[in-house]
Amino acid sequence: LCWAGIERARSCGASEVASALGNSLYMHSMRKDIEMTRSICGELVPISERMGYKMWFHHAQFFLGWALTSEGERGGFEMMEESMQRFRRAHEMVEQTLFYYLLAERYLADGNCNRARHNVDLGLALVEQHGERFFEVPLLRLKALCCEAGDQPAKADEVATLNTLADKTAREQGATIWY
Prior knowledge:
Blueprint: H1 2-10, H2 14-30, H3 34-51, H4 54-70, H5 75-89, H6 96-109, H7 113-130, H8 136-149, H9 156-173
């Protein structure tokens, strides 16, 4: 589906192509498709630079950082953090819960539980502040994992409470993918 949308956008203009490419990055990251993420970013960055699409440029930089960290390249964290700073300055709120999740997930995979937990907490704070609940369930599950893996592991009941809340929220949302 992503490719069909991208191909259709190619018959329009640069704005449509950038939108199609940028939006496809969400799906490719959720599928953990590093190769396709790199490929899309490789096309999106020059279009964004040429046309002055800062939002799409920073989306591409964030997801390229995600791809790099997924392959063990720690320099990707700096790219992701810089993009997050830009998103915050520009008040781009809707996708930030997803971005905090992806950044936290990479930090946890890298063994940095404190940075992972910090980003999960920032994402969950946005859920509460703005009511944007799209990525609430994965954030809750990741918080449970952070609690288990931290320097001072949480009690089993705290982890169970987070997982129970995630299950309940997923059911309420009809979010079968998060099970």
